[in-house]
Amino acid sequence: MSIIGKFQVFIDRTGEININHQGLQMRILNCRKYYSIDVIFEDGTILYDKRYDHFKDGAIINPMYPSVYNIGYFGIGKYVARLSGSNKNTSQYQTWHSMMSRCYDKKSKIHKSYKDCSVCNEWLNYQNFAKWYDDNFYQIPNEVMCLDKDILHKGNKVYSPENCVFAPNRINVLFIKTDSKRGNFPIGVYYNKLNKNYRAQFNAINKIMLDSFDTPEKAFECYKKEKEKYIKQIADEYKNKIPNNLYKAMINYKVEILD
């Protein structure tokens, strides 16, 4: 658009090319007026009704470009990253970004605990995850809610709609394993150097000490019995507060010596 005196002269800028802040080439597909252009990116993504001055400044961002750890992308849809009028992230975006970080941020210390974990293709698109979040999130008063990937399907390493469920932290910590701390002994078994025997214990909100035995196998059997009983006890306590699939997974959960 050009201005001559008091009159505005329309300039059809269809076909004009520029590079945006992501380093991506974009081209004006349609030009209706200065404040209404359609832009197409090289990957075929089309954004409608954008401003030419934003195009010129490189400020039009391709939401399909994998800008989060080089694999996740924002997507096209109704979900936003930040609360209106605030610099605070929405709970949907915060949960999604934390999930992506656990799997793909190699600089993060917590990433080591999630070695070989990944996010399904569907959830690499934030819009898809946010919809699932809205459909499945629930809040228990005075509880911290966690996104869990491996209670429903033991040993699972892929975050996906089929594998994930929200659980209160009190339940989530029951299934956290500290492989690096127990050494070569079975889960729930620790060697007592002072007494030269094997102690069975497990972590809930508070560490629960069980008993000591002369072999790691006996200590594990004690741990297995008490841990499974405790999980069932907590499941029954939360029965009317948590999803049925989470309750069933807890009731049927089996502790294995190779866990």
Structure annotation, total helices: 7
Query: What is the terminal-to-terminal distance?
Result: 67 Å
Got a strand count? Answer: 13
Global mean pLDDT: 90
Major beta sheet, strand line-up: 3-4-5-6
Helix fraction by DSSP (H/I, runs of at least 4): 25-40%
- Following the backbone from N to C, one meets helices and strands in this order, namely EEEEEEHHEHEEEHHEEEHH
Number of domains: 3
Radius of gyration: 26 Å
Largest sheet: 4 strands, antiparallel
Which spans have pLDDT < 50 for at least 5 consecutive residues?
1-5
What structural class is derived from the secondary structure elements?
A: alpha+beta
Q: Can you tell me the overall shape?
A: elongated
Q: Tell me the β content.
A: 15-25%
Polypeptide structure, described:
This protein has a four-stranded antiparallel sheet. A three-stranded antiparallel sheet has the order 11-12-13, with helices on one face. The chain is built from seven helices and 13 strands. Helix 6 runs antiparallel to helix 7. The radius of gyration is 26 Å and the shape is elongated. The chain has three domains: 55 residues; 79 residues, no CATH class; 82 residues. The longest helix is centred in the C-terminal third of the chain and has 22 residues. It is an alpha+beta fold and 259 residues long.
How would you briefly describe this protein structure?
By secondary structure, this protein is α+β, with helices and mostly antiparallel strands. The protein contains seven helices and 13 strands.
